[in-house]
Structure formats: C-alpha cells, structure tokens
Amino acid sequence: MLGLALLAGLAVPAQASEEDFNLWLGQFATINTSDKVYVRLEAQERFTNDADRLGQLLLRSLVGYRLNDNVNIGAGYAYIFTDPVGPVELNEHRLYQELNVRLLRTAGGLTLDSRTRLEQRFFEERDGTAWRVRQFVQLRAPITKHNRLVAFSEPFIDLNQTSVQRGGLSIWRNFAGISVPLTKGVEIVPGYLNQYVVRDGPDRIDHTANINLFMNF
Questions:
Q1: What 8-state DSSP symbol labels residue 105?
Q2: In terms of DSSP bridges, do strands 168-183 and 186-197 run parallel, antiparallel, or are they unpaired?
Q3: Pairing of β 148-158 and β 168-183
Q4: In CA terms, which of 9, 67, 76, 108 is 20 to 30 Å from 202?
Q5: DSSP reduced 3-state for 80
Q6: For residues 173 and 151, what is the distance between their CA atoms, to the nearest angstrom?
Q7: For 143, left (φ over 0), alpha (ψ -120 to 50), or beta?
Q8: CA nearest 2: which of 112, 108, 105, 107?
Q9: Do 77 and 83 meet the contact criterion of CB atoms below 8 Å apart?
Q10: What pLDDT, in 10s, does the model give residues 134-152?
Q11: Terminal-to-terminal C-alpha distance of the chain
Q12: Closest by alpha carbon to 125, among 166, 95, 155, 83?
C-alpha cells in the first residue's frame, strides 16, 4: 500500500498524446574499496520505437563516500549516446553530484531511500551547459522471504533553458518491480517503468519493460 501511495502521490500532471513501448536493460556494479569509499559502474541499453532499435546507450561511473550508515555522497561522469528517429544523433558528456539518504528502515526490512542528483550536461553538437536536478525516492518492501517489492518515483527538473532542454519539469519516471536474488551480492529487478516526457509539442509516455542487474562486491 505504501508503494502504491508513493507512486500515486507523484503521478504525472497530464495525459500524453503520443506513446511508445521501450525495453531498457541495465547493469550496475558497486565495488567497495574500503568501509567508507566505493565505486559504482553502470551501463544501460535503451531500445525504443516499439523496442525495435537501440535509441540510447548510457555509460556512467561514480566515486562515493559513506558519511555514516544512512548518508553517502558521490560525484561522477557519464557518457550518453542518443540516436532518435529523425533528429540528429547526440553525444552527451555529463558531470554529476549526488546525495543519498536512507529515510526509513524498519525491523521487518522495509526501507525508504532518497537520492538527490545535480547534473551538468555538455553536448558535442550543441553549445552551453544544461543544468538539471533529479529527485529519486525508492521504496523496498519484503513480500516473501527472498523477494522485495521495489517502487520508485523520479522527476527531472531543468534548471535552465538551452538548445536541448526547455526548463522546468522535463521527465517523470515511475517504476514498480520485484527483486530476485541470484547469488550473494547479486540480484535482478524486472519491472514496469512509466516515463512521461514533457515536450514543446505533444508530450510522450514511454511504457518500458525495465530489467536491471545489480552486483555488489
């Protein structure tokens, strides 16, 4: 119930007039170099246009530091190649900083986490720096001995206007899925992700089959 309430409370503002089916795959590895310091590496392959083509490839890295058991900070770099139908391809280089806070942990294993991420986006094909903030909130709730419900919501807010972003709310993602442990420190999380994209023309909803693999070393 809490997961449904979280997603309902952060629903998108209106109905889109264009829709697409996507398939997104993600691989995430967290490498603990000490009790305090960790490195996170990830790759994401996003198949768009009825999942018929690779529309976007994202490669991201981060170095993080644990301030305590509930708070950590980090900074990193991402490269994103976007190949939309029609418009020109884009090569994006992204710097970002983030703050992660565990908001809630119960004896029964329920957790609620927040991630605030500030991004500076640079494009090889465009001028200027696009600034964006993303506020991610995720609920994980036990449903069996080994499986958890995973639900998150994440709005993207453009902090300025550039040739690649319009300013204000630009994207809103909502996800619900189930975590499935594969072995110690490794789990797969399949689920449904709804992405609402705000555009100058008709807005768009992406109905996305999202499958992520998480590894912790």
A1: E
A2: antiparallel
A3: antiparallel
A4: 9
A5: strand
A6: 11
A7: alpha
A8: 112
A9: no
A10: 999 999 999 999 999 999 9
A11: 32
A12: 83
Amino acid 45 reads E
DSSP state of 88: P
Nearest to 64 by CA among 27, 22, 34: 34
DSSP state of 166: -
Measured CA to CA, the distance from residue 16 to residue 14 in angstroms comes to 7
pTM strictly above 0.85: yes
Of 212, 215, 207, 214, the C-alpha closest to 50 is: 207
Residue pair 169/198 in contact (Cβ under 8 Å)? The answer is yes
Three-class DSSP category at 67: coil
Q: Is 133 exposed, middle or buried (0-12, 13-18, 19+ CB in 10 A)?
A: middle
**Tokens of residue 40, six digits:** 């996170």
Is residue 200's pLDDT more than 90? no
